[in-house]
Write a structure and sequence with these properties.
Blueprint lengths: L1 H18 L10 E3 L6 E4 L4 E4 L5 H15 L4 E3 L8 E5 L10 E6 L2 E6 L2 H12 L10 E4 L1 E5 L5 E7 L7 H13 L4 E5 L1 E2 L2 E2 L8 H4 L3 E3 L15 E3 L4 H12 L4 E8 L4 H6 L43 H17 L4 E5 L6 H5 L1 H9 L5 H18 L3 E5 L12 E4 L4 H8 L4 E3 L2 H4 L20 H5 L10 H4 L2 E6 L9 H8 L2 H10 L7 H18 L11
Parallel strand pairs: 3-4, 3-5, 5-7, 10-11, 10-21, 11-16, 16-17, 17-18, 18-19, 19-20, 20-21
Antiparallel strand pairs: 1-9, 2-8, 6-7, 6-9, 12-13, 14-15
Helix pairs in contact: 2-3, 4-6, 8-11
The structure holds ligand TNX.
The site of ligand TNX has 9 residues, from loops.
EC number: 3.2.1.52
Family: Belongs to the glycosyl hydrolase 20 family.
Keywords: Glycosidase, Hydrolase, Signal
Length: 544
Amino acid sequence: MFKRTFILILLYAFTCSSYAQISIIPKPSSMISPANGGTVRVDASTQISVQSPALQNSADFLNDYLVQFYGFMLKSKMSVSNQAVVYLSIKNEASKSSGSYSLVVNKNGINILGNDATGVFYGVQSLIQLLPVVKEAVLSIPYVTINDAPHFAYRGMHLDVTRHFFPVAFVKKYIDFLALHKMNYFHWHLTDDQGWRIEIKKYPRLTQIGGYRNGTIIGHFPGTGNDNKHYGGFYTQEQIKEVVAYATKRYITVVPEIEMPGHASAAIAAYPELSCFPEESTKAPEKTVWSGPATGKQVQQTWGVFEDVFAPTENTFTFLQDVLDEVISLFPSQYIHIGGDESPKHNWKRSAFCQQLIKEKGLKDEHGLQSYFVQRMEKYVNSKGRTIIGWDEILEGGLAPNAIVMSWRGEEGGIAAAKLKHQVIMTPGSHVYFDHSQVKPDDSLTIGGYTTVRKVYSYEPIPKELSAEEGKYVLGAQANLWTEYLPYTTTIEYQIFPRISALSEVLWSSKESRQWEEFEPRLRNQMKRYDLWKVHYGAIDAGM
Ligand code: TNX
């Protein structure tokens, strides 16, 4: 017992000494800093050079960062130069994974060697965290040797731009937050009951009508009623391309989500014939605070789940395929998210057409019909060479053959899918819903829940219920940021920081290397960097 405690103290002392001033999040696989090491001085006269043009992205990112936070940039040198203090290069080794890199700071300067261009970019992110947390004209970079590689292949963050719309400039900023944490997937939730946010040329009413609702925030904020604003917005295809290009330069894949068959009110408001009951008014849920007249279909003004979903008609399938054609041409992502969550079966139950279809196709019930719906869409997406992701409800009634499951109602869906040999992305509400409050007592109006930064840090994406073999189907995890209660960019920042830092480490480092007591001081140091970035962030609540 004594021996174990002693070893633990020694280990802790060691990690403290090597991570005290140098504190990188997510934690590198290995980091050695000499006890009385020197520093490399970096200022406006320092030169940077890249081995090949493909690495210019990374040099540009570093320079943009330096300009923004320290007021100067490095001098670019086109070729290898012995004058260069910062040198970015690649040496590909088959035994190493994509994204792995080494960063060596010593008397020869600052050398980042990536296994590929992605690795070089991650090396730059680690270098950024060696910079001082306050603005200085000459930056002293401590000697260090880092060897690092990502643990999970999918390290994601989601953003809901439907409940509230956010401009391109903020979406880019959000992508930068991901990049700074070495995350590599941005899940863009583009359509829902409260707004359709992506321009589709073939169906202009989707954004003309579906892009706006009557009222900003109804009822949920104390003292607010319907302000009757024509509220919303959408991204043009040019803007979408701009965001995708921006993310690509940061080695981030943008996964678009087009919701079906539920969460479809905005699309149905634009094209009522997509509903089983085109003539009926869209009914608001019972609990709604809004009691205004609903004439015809409407883009929803409140939150929740709505009964008016896509009808499984040929007309709807043609529409969705046309939409996906345009989506696929805009997003190079291998993965296309087709939603699938929270689709009430009430309308399908009372529709003669749906009942007939269930009989004709020999389906068991409405869940079978949802499975039929998703499988048809999957076939189409697969025919374009892409793979679908769906929320875990797509398991009900039979999983589409090649689908990836995003497990949000706990881990059960993910466990079941992995056992069926389907790939899985974990996003359980219990640990990674960043719309929940992160402190107690709740200091802002959130959707509910209590998910502290410590709880996020405790998360392990591979559930213990899975065997080693089954665990391989877990690609990684993602935090979801639903924005019902987050109308402002400041509140979004507040909800993601500091939890994004904890999540990035959960996804980047191995389970064995994580210990809250060791992480917390690094996180406190990181908060000084948040100050430099001028982002809003929550407090550290060590509750579980
Ligand atoms: C459930 S998570 C939803 C969203 C809500 C969220 C609020 C999921 C697939 N669906 O529509 O915004 O809860 O936390």
